[in-house]
Amino acid sequence: MKTLVIVSHPDINESATQNFLKASFPLDEEVTWHEVVDDIDIEHERQLLIENERIILQFPLYWYTAPAALKKWMDEVLDGDFIFAGQKPLANKEFGIVVSTGISDKQFQAGGNEKFTISEMLKPFEMTANKLQMSYLRPLVINQFEYFTNEQKQALVVDYQCYLQQIDDNFDGRLNWFIKRLKDDGQDLLADTLLAKKNELNDLSWQVKTMREDDGEG
Known about the structure:
It contains 9 helices and 6 strands.
C-alpha cells in the first residue's frame, strides 16, 4: 500500500525527533517522506493524496494541536471543492498520525497535569478522518524523545517503521518484519535461522494448546 507521510515542524532541521525519524525512515519506494512548505502547490498536494492509499500526518504537539504550517496546509488543500466534489477522493483511504510531545505520557490522563489523554486531544483529526470517510488508525505517540535511552531509540525505529507500513502489532508481525529486513540486507542465513526458530515456537505452542484441550483446559 502506498503511504504518504506529511511532515510538519516549525524548525525541522533543528528537531532531534524529526531528524531521528527521517534517518529511521523505511527504505521502501511505497513509503514517501513529504515535508510541508510555506509555498503550497495545492494541485500537487492533492495529486499526492490521490496517488497514496495511506496518509500519515507527522508533527510535534503545539498548544494541543498541530503546528500552524500543517493547519494552513489542511485549510488550503482539503477545501470543500476538493474533498466533497464528485466521488470524495479520499474515501476509504487510511489516516494515521505520528505525534511527538515534550511531556511525559503520565501527564496525559485524568489526574495528570494535562488532564486529558492524547486520544482526546487528537479528536479533531479523528473527526476529520470520519468526515473524509477515511479509516482512522491508532496514533503513534512519541513522548520526551530527548530522554530516550539507546534501547528506547532502537525500539522506536521498529515501532515507527511498523506503523508506517502497518505491520501487525504483535510478536509474529514484528518478527516477520525483522526477517524481511534481514533478507533485504542480504543476511539470508540469519533470516532463515530466525524463521526456523519461529516455526519451532509455533509448533510448540500448538502442541501445548492441544495438550490443554485434551486435559479439559481449553
